[in-house]
Amino acid sequence: FRIKWSLSYTVVLGLILLVSIPISVMGLATYLRSRDLMQEQAANQLNTIIQTQSLQAGQIASASRQYLDELLNDSLVKDAIDKVITESADANLYLTAYQLNGFRNRTPLFESTYADQISLILSNGRVLISTKAELANRNIGQIEAIKSLLGTDTTTTAFNIPELAPDKYVILATKIFKSSSPRPVTATLLVS
Predict the structure, then answer these.
(1) Cα gap 189→61, rounded to integer Å
(2) Separation between Cα atoms, residue 50 and residue 89, nearest integer Å
(3) In a 3-state reduction of DSSP, which class is residue 114?
(4) Chain centre to alpha carbon of residue 62
(5) CA distance 151 to 185
(6) What are phi and psi of 118, to 5 degrees?
(7) What's the number of CA atoms in the CB half-sphere (13 Å) around residue 8?
(8) Which of 9, 23, 115, 123 has the most CB atoms lying inside 10 A of its own CB?
(9) Sheet hosting strand 127-130, strand order edge to edge
(10) pTM (2 decimals)?
(11) Angle of helix 90-105 relative to helix 75-87, nearest 10 degrees?
């Protein structure tokens, strides 16, 4: 059994092969180049997102520090905190919590969703007062992220802090407050 190839059939088959090889090479090169460009574009977009988020986190941290400075420059709040940590009078607790909430409500940092609480924590880890009512009188000093912040003036970040911010990424800013009594009591103001 023999197949007779006509000259025209052989020429057409040869042309198809001759054309398909460069087209295949060009298609493969285009695919590889497009894949590289898409990977480069994705990497650039991720880098831009990371830079934007880092800048925003830095601005929030700076605003938190400024908030704590302004809070301790408010003489009413400062006096009330001093009385609370030296005398532990219930009336002062309510007064100070009221003043903290009032200061909190008139501060732009808390108008956003970035900061939602401020707490006064004694050096032993007990929350003396907090704008988050369920934290009052609880000891959060055993929480590793909080333990490292007690007695410091710092700003840091943490994720999933039990009792404070479960399953959340938070920026924590702290400021040391020393009472004016003869035996000064130290407390830490925490904003998150």
Answers:
(1) 14
(2) 47
(3) coil
(4) 13
(5) 11
(6) -140, 135
(7) 0
(8) 115
(9) 127-130, 118-122, 186-191, 165-178, 154-161
(10) 0.63
(11) 150
Residue with tokens 């090479």: 25
Rounded Cα distance between 137 and 149, Å, is 18
Evaluate whether 191 touches 64 at the Cβ level (below 8 Å): yes
Phi, psi of 188 (to 5 degrees): -120, 130
Round to whole Å and give the CA distance between 142 and 155. 19
pLDDT tens for 82-134 read 777 776 555 445 555 555 656 556 555 555 545 677 788 888 888 877 777 78
Q: Calculate the alpha carbon distances from 182 to 80, 86, 89, 178, 179 in Å.
A: 17, 10, 18, 11, 9
Q: Is 2 helix (H, G, I), strand (E, B) or coil?
A: coil
Tokens of 9: 């059939």
How many whole angstroms separate alpha carbon 86 and alpha carbon 82? 6
Residue 18: what residue type? L
Residue 47 tokens, joined: 């880098």
Q: How far, in Å, CA of 164 to CA of 142, rounded?
A: 12
The position carrying tokens 């006064």 is 120
